[in-house]
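Attaching the record inline, Q. Sequence:
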Amino acid sequence: MPSLSTPRAKALLRATLLAGALAVLPATTAGLAAVDARVTPAFTRLFTVYQLIKANYVDQTDDEKLVKGAIDGMLASLDPHSTYLEGASLERLNTMIDGNYAGLGLSVGMDDGAVKVIAPMHGSPAEKAGVKAGDYITHLDGKLIFGGDLDAAVAQMRGEPGTNIRLTLFRPGRDAPFDVTVTRGVIDLKPVTAKLMGTIGVITVNEFSRDVGRQSLAALDDLRRQAGGHLGGVVLDLRENPGGSLDEAVALSDLFLSTGVIVSQRSRLAGDNETWRAERFFPGDAARGLPMVVLIDAGSASASEIVAGALQDQHRALVMGERSFGKGSVQSMIPLDRAHAVKLTTARYYTPSGRSVQEGGIEPDIRVPQISDPDLRRRNFERLRESDLRHHLVNEAGIDDKALEGDRQADPRFRMTPEELKAKGITDFQLWYAAETLRRTSPGAPATLVAARQR
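Structure, as predicted:
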């Protein structure tokens, strides 16, 4: 295990694949000393319980197990994103970011004892087998894993390339669990992919790991060359992107902005508040004013929401798709020693207009359902977001999350069935609709799009 003080290890921690906007902070003794006097009575009770367990529990207990349980309990009582990492969990983070491991290509988390799919990685064996964000994995090769350890489940899902594993999935919107068999493969993480649809460039950002901003710039330059210098617009696809590095979210936003605020964070202490502005990483607008659409859905969380909110508030892009996840908090990774760390929620972030996306998420300018996916159409009504998680942070503005769920009459443009779309060769309706919107845009595109957004 590499030291957490090395530059490489710090980069790995900053580039975590967990759903969050992440920063790295040192564990300062001054900060710890400041709270020491205030917690003594509470820790007296904690130590008393520890002594009772050691003296009276039916089986002999291990101190490491009790201490870890106490730490896990403290962090779990705060919010769903504050966690304690050691051993296997830090090793898993290390291996995933290096991007050279054999497995299924899934980002997963625990939800009340169940292993929940945050998102399958694009092009991974799991995605190809039909695993979707929001699925719950109940069995592995027929063995129940509910209530077990997440690291143990992840270890079981990994294995030699070419070997199979049977997942039993529960998918909200379906009446019964079902099985899928996935063939393990070598996972080569590609944070940024790109393709040309006619004259429209599509840049897909799968997670906010290191160098996402620079990779996106390279992808944009390559798309411009493929289009012979006649690129007609850009779709930035952030769907099913669970988040990652805060710096990379700022860098990606900065790529398309030349002025103004990108995001601000507000902590408990005013001295820790910070604002990020354009021109921090890249000079000018790399897309040179080309019309843009940002695609989001309920799997777009945290760092993805920073980018979507910045480009939306600065009137640089039209946001399409479904309302995002609604995770408006920043987690700081605080190394404790060579093998232990705490991921702690330390701030809320706000879009340039001062909106907090906590609970409510980013509302698209044009809601476009993914009608090419029949499963998604059924399960969207039951899909979980930040506001559904136990102990989630409350939006300080008091937004009624339920009010955001109630929509409206079905748009007549979105009544085609998956079968009708397939006959037309449309397998991804949201992406097709975004590209068609840009194709129909006149050379005065940015003003046209802004006008559409403001109506």
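The chain has 14 helices and 21 strands. Residues 11 and 212 are 13 Å apart (CA to CA).

More tomorrow.
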